[in-house]
Amino acid sequence: MTPSTDILRFRHICLRALLYILLIGALMQGVYLEALYLPERRFSETGFTELAQSGVLLASAMLALYLWRQRPEMPAVCCLFFAFLGASLIREQDAWLDQYVAENTWKVLVALLILPCLFYVIRRRHVFITEFEGYANSFSFGLFAAGFLTTYVFSRLYGRGEMWEAVLGDAYRRVFKDAAEEVTELLGYTLMLVAMIELFLLIRRRLKRS
User: What top-level branch of life does the organism fall under (predicted)?
Assistant: First the structure.
């Protein structure tokens, strides 16, 4: 049975749904304007879509870090979220790091981030399991799972060049494949940002009623 502290009021759900719709609408309008006015940058490292991905990931990672360090409710879960989102953010900068620092720099940075966080969670594994069991039935978890599957499973399959070559035949251009993959990734990252916002609100509700 869902804890009473996790119950959402209808008007709050409607308000947040409206705000999330506006967020996704604004991002998609940015994608449209990129395709319309920046043909030389479409879905490249300097295009709106890629930069928006980094911005959304940065916001998500910072929110997870805040929840880990400043809120006592679910520190192990939030630490793991911070590690995952931070690693994803670093991975999105691989081209810049390869060009301006050294090749495969992102792998080193990801390892430096992931390993201490994993050590922290493993040391608190029993606490982590308890925290996760209390979190798994929440709206936030469902959103995060949807974002993860969208970004790391669906977008990879949907953005395969072979599939778009089969669909478009002689009209195939790489930009179609890039658009399909990058825009779907942006949606997935946005769902994970919404999940972090919902986690923040969930923790705040629990602390208020504890």
Answer: Bacteria
CB 71 within 8 A of CB 203: yes
Give the tens place of pLDDT for each residue, 62-106: 999 999 999 888 999 999 999 999 999 999 999 999 999 999 999
The amino acid at residue 110 is V
Residues ≥6 apart with Cβ < 8 Å to 209 = 4, 5
Closest to 60 (Cα-Cα) out of 201, 163, 191: 191
Torsion of CA 96, 100, 103, 106, to 10 degrees: -50
Among residues 86, 90, 88, 89, the alpha carbon closest in space to that of 68 is found at 86
- Picking from 133, 124, 93, the residue whose alpha carbon sits closest to that of residue 109 is 93
Asked if 50 and 43 touch (Cβ cutoff 8 Å), the reply is: yes
- pLDDT tens digit sequence for 119-142: 999 999 999 999 999 999 999 999
**Orientation angle between helical segments 125-135 and 75-92, nearest 10 degrees:** 90
Give the distance from CA 199 to its chain's centroid.
Answer: 13
pTM of the complete model: 0.93
Are 85 and 57 in contact, with CB atoms under 8 Å apart? Answer: yes
Residue 49 near residue 43 (C-beta atoms within 8 A): yes
CA 186 and chain centroid, separation: 8
